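Write out the 3D structure for:
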Amino acid sequence: MIKIVTPITKELINQLSVGDMITISGFIYTGRDAVLPKIVDLIKLGDFSKYDINLKGSVIFHTAVSPAGVGPTSSNKFEIESSIPELSKAGVKIHLGKGELSQETIAALNKYNSVYAIIPPVTALLNSKTLSRKVVAFPEFGMEAYHLLEIKDYPAIIAAAHGKSIYDGK
């Protein structure tokens, strides 16, 4: 396991190889389809003056931040993947997400000495622990239909019980 702390140096990027297991600590940015093109526009305008943004040696996690938590979104969505070359050129060293990138994007990462790392989505873990699934109501809603699942060993954390929450005191 390679422990990484932001900001990221080009020397560290040079030491990383496909298949390395890493952990990242420090500050990272987040963004996905709506905001990353706006960041690219700021790069092109050269105007980060009204924002607290420094892309040199940074990490961008392709995610949204919600009260439910964070999880990787597909990095190969057009708006996200098309931002990767410009963000890398501007100093982003690690892009975190999920999904396969095009060869053109991989070439751009190489050109700007940046890397892409995947965070395996929890859905992959949960899918491996789902023994069967059946739509029991509202099939017209597709993946949002009412399903019955047979599961084994789903991991979970009790977040609220007996009037208390793990988020109390935040």
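Residues 98 and 118 are 5 Å apart (CA to CA).
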